[in-house]
């Protein structure tokens, strides 16, 4: 590996620093920092792993798919560590942590009703045919119709839209019948 | 007032679930639609099902999608950086460059070693060639077996005994005449 004073080393260092900054930004944009991970730690770990990969195989190709795998593995490791930390008892903090996850804080009334409604939602989802359940779940997770089509192996975004819209109508109808009220998307 | 957003309720449900095990390489392959990753359809479906169930993995998958062009850019930049660096380093570190600093000594030593090897080879070959005819003489030795067989047969042949019986017969005849 070239020494730190080497211009090649300096250039690689700069490239990794720029890349790391983008990773940090995207971790925050996509809300991964809300799942208990520190984007700065992840960014540093990604850079270390990429440097090691370069040192390990100097002549090998440095593919984009490999870089993506490094980022995915690093974030998953960080999420696991965060989950373990969250599972450990914290004697001084009495606040329940579920409010930390998801989309923003949940008030006491809402959290009381949430558990019941989540159970209802889980039950209704289980009753929906599997062919529709996966596209609906992916859509509710925030994936676009094209992404839903790509991930679920649906031929087109239009076909995914039809499956999702029918499935959502069915889901809302079931929730209404069970007395959970009128939901919106 | 209850939050009536289905997607937000589902994400809270997905966040509350325990995180399933997922391999980073599998996730990256599914997100990029990399057919060369060698994931079976069943394995791929299992990964997608985990994305559907886990809010964390779904967030990560969407982030990886957004990161794809950035990663491609990094890979291209690193490759360009290496291409630019390698020819220069190659010239500096090439061993043949060192050999040219002392061409006389190394060339003469190499030529002498090669000549010596050729001389030894030629000498060995000639020695072997000169020994070859003696080795060729041994071929008839195999015929001795047949020759000895011939002797065995020869000892039982009719022309061997008649000589002796003939001589004995002569003695009897000779005795007869004497008496």
Quaternary structure annotation: heterodimer
Number of domains of chain A: 2
SS-derived structural category of chain A = mainly alpha
Rg of Cα set of chain B: 49 Å
Give the proportion of residues in helices of chain B: over 70%
Radius of gyration of chain A: 22 Å
- The H-and-E topology of chain A, N to C, reads as HHHHHHH
Strand content of chain B: under 5%
Beta-strand portion of chain A reads under 5%
Regions of chain B with pLDDT < 50 over 5+ consecutive residues?
89-99, 162-169, 171-179
Low-confidence stretches of chain A: 94-102
Overview of the molecule:
The complex is a heterodimer of chains A (185) and B (179). Chain A is mostly helical and 185 residues long. Chain A is built from 7 helices and no strands. The radius of gyration of chain A is 22 Å and the shape is elongated. The model of chain A is unreliable at 94-102 (pLDDT under 50). Among the domains of chain B are: 6-93, no CATH class; 147-179. Helices cover 81% and strands 0% of the residues of chain B. Chain B contains 8 helices and no strands. At the A-B interface, α1, α3, α4, α5 and α6 of A face α1, α2, α3 and α4 of B.
List descriptors.
heterodimer; A: 185 residues; mainly alpha; Arc Repressor Mutant, subunit A; 2 domains; 7 helices; 0% strand; B: 179 residues; 8 helices; disordered C terminus
């Amino acid at each position: 590996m070239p020494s730190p004073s080497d211009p090649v080393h300096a250039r690689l260092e700069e490239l990794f620093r720029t890349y790391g900054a983008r990773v940090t930004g995207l971790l925050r944009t996509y809300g991964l920092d809300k799942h208990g991970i520190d984007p700065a730690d992840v960014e540093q770990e990604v850079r270390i792993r990429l440097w090691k990969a370069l040192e390990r195989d100097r002549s090998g190709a440095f593919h984009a798919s490999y870089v993506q795998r490094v980022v995915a593995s690093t974030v998953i490791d960080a999420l696991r560590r965060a989950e373990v930390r969250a599972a450990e008892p914290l004697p001084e903090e009495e606040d329940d942590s579920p409010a930390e996850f998801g989309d923003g804080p949940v008030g006491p009334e809402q959290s009381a009703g949430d558990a019941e409604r989540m159970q209802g939602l889980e039950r209704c989802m289980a009753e929906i045919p599997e062919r529709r359940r996966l596209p609906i779940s992916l859509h509710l997770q925030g994936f676009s119709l094209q992404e839903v089509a790509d991930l679920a192996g649906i031929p087109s975004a239009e076909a995914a839209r039809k499956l999702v819209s029918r499935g959502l109508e069915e889901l809302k109808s079931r929730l209404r019948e069970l007395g959970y009220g009128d939901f919106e998307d | 007032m209850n939050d009536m957003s289905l997607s937000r309720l589902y994400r809270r449900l997905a966040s509350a679930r325990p995180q399933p095990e997922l391999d980073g390489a599998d996730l990256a392959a599914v997100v990029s639609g990399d057919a060369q990753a060698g994931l079976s359809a069943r394995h791929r479906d299992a990964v997608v099902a985990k994305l559907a169930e886990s809010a964390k993995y779904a967030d990560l998958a969407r982030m990886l999608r957004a990161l794809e062009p950035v990663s491609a850019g990094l890979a291209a930049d690193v490759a360009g950086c290496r291409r630019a660096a390698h020819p220069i380093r190659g010239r500096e570190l090439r061993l043949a460059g060192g050999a040219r600093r002392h061409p006389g000594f190394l060339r003469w030593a190499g030529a002498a070693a090669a000549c010596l090897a050729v001389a030894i080879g030629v000498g060995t070959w000639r020695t072997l060639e000169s020994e070859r005819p003696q080795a060729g003489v041994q071929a008839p030795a195999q015929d001795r077996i047949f020759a000895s067989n011939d002797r065995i047969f020869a000892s039982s042949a009719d022309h061997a005994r008649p000589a002796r019986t003939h001589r004995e017969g002569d003695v009897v005849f000779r005795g007869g005449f004497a008496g």
